[in-house]
Design brief:
mainly beta, Gyrase A, domain 2, 4-stranded mixed sheet, 2 helices
Length: 125
Amino acid sequence: MKLRIKGDSLRVRLTRPEVQQLDESGSVEERVNFAGGAALVYRLKRDAQVSAIEAIYEAGAVEIRVPEQIAKEWCGSDQVTLEGVQRTGASAELRIVVEKDFACLAPRAGEDESDNFANPSNLRC
């Protein structure tokens, strides 16, 4: 799972096995380890208690929660993107995007994209 943070925007991209894991177990988690034993954990989770996509940050972990039924439908479909906006203050919002990760159009050295979804631009009819 890839995490991209830019301003008030979170984006996660999942490979095929990660989408399957979300479908089967209800969550996918990664961690970035830092010197001194610190870590940043980021997690995507199906949640029957939420009605819209939301994110929380606590105890060194970013957790994105997707409503259970929406997540299940997304995992079993060709739909690429789930998107939500969460109010974080009187005039502030956090944009949250969850996507299926496609292989790049041009191979990049040192990157294994064998678990990524086939890029639709590479498909021929």
